[in-house]
């Protein structure tokens, strides 16, 4: 009669005391996965605003890439100079993108080196 598979035979024993380092590694990986999911949720829920022209054009979005609002000061709406408004809008979008990237780096950065001590995971 065969015995049922017991995962503690592979991963049991802790790892903190050196009995089975795989158990500690598995626990660390599970903790990192939870932190990663939390960071992704924070990024998705964040509101990010990009501006141009000292606030004359503002573009707001969330961390997932969705644009949620655009505000244009009436002072820059000139039918004879549409190019300036277009440039300001592009500048605000670029600022928004840059701020999204900074937010993602801030939230995900600490997780990037988490398993760096393992071959192929650094």
From TrEMBL:
Coiled-coil annotated residue ranges, if any: 22-49
Keywords: Coiled coil, Cytoplasm, DNA-binding
Name of this protein: Nucleoid-associated protein Gbro_0436
Entry similarity comment: Belongs to the YbaB/EbfC family.
Gene3D superfamilies, per the entry: Nucleoid-associated protein YbaB-like domain
Subunit structure: Homodimer.
Superkingdom per UniProt: Bacteria
Cell compartments where the protein resides: Cytoplasm, Nucleoid
Function: Binds to DNA and alters its conformation. May be involved in regulation of gene expression, nucleoid organization and DNA protection.
